[in-house]
Amino acid sequence: MEPSWFSGIVTVEDQRSYIKIETLRGENLAEIHSALSEVCDELTVDRSTVSSWASRFRGGRVSINDDPRLGRPKTSTDERNVKLVSDALEEDRRATCEELSETTGIPLMSIFRILTNDLKKGKISARWVPRCLTAEQKQKRLDISTLLKQRFDVEGQAFLYQLVTIDETWVRDFEPELKSQSNEWRGPSSPRPKKISTISIKDQIQNRPQLLEAGPIILQDNARAHIGNVVTEKLRQYGLEVLPHAPYIPDMSAPDFDLFPKLKQPMRGRRFPSLEELSAAVTRAIRQKKDGVLDGIVKLLTRWESVIEKQGDYIEGL
């Protein structure tokens, strides 16, 4: 027999051919395996494989190739299930696989296969993107940040101490506790989901006369409720200064990046069955905020500097 280096040209099919020939010649399994080992060395098929193929050849098998492995054909049931899952996603793109399985009656593993293989979906998380800034909007952000930074350089901390920020937010009956709870099933070409903020104000300025009489400097965004005739007239009546504020800048609004997240934190992951319970939870959260916890105004300086550094673009992670 040839030495073991010759095994490089002996394939598995070659070994099966040898097993077939020697089995038909009446050789026993030990002799067949020993002969293969002399040629194929560590690439030799094991004894159980020799026994299995020898048994098949004795039973009349002719082919030395593997039997074809046919996948399960696509059925109308598969197509119906895909449509069920697709329709369920149209109702709620944040549904989990477990929820989709419960809704459609389709097994959990099939749900995941349909989502990833058939519908080509992946789950991505939403993030706040108020609006894609134009070059003009970036320039305005840069100009205002530069102006406010220069004023701080002149007046120092006293400038920050005079600032009063005004803003509003929605508090929903359920605030997701984890980022994954706001995930949505999306296809590869789908745009990243965006959360749109909506605000409402009810005569806040008129309800706080004692604060206004102290002579603060007002820093608020350009929401329509903030620049309406009633509000601007009230500010003029009290002789209050209102700082310039570019549109679409929640990253430079102290309530947006400091107050509101801390206010909602104790309520995340909880569902409130009634407006009364939600209102009571908000009141408790406000009363629990102690001095030093809210420091958004102090951080405005860092924000202005970052906007200047980024030439007016959005800032994150501060």
Automatic annotation (TrEMBL):
InterPro entries: RNaseH_sf, Transposase-MT_Hybrid. Gene3D superfamilies: Ribonuclease H-like superfamily/Ribonuclease H (3.30.420.10). It comes from Cryptotermes secundus. This is Mos1 transposase HTH domain-containing protein. One of its GO terms (molecular function) is nucleic acid binding. It comes from the Eukaryota.
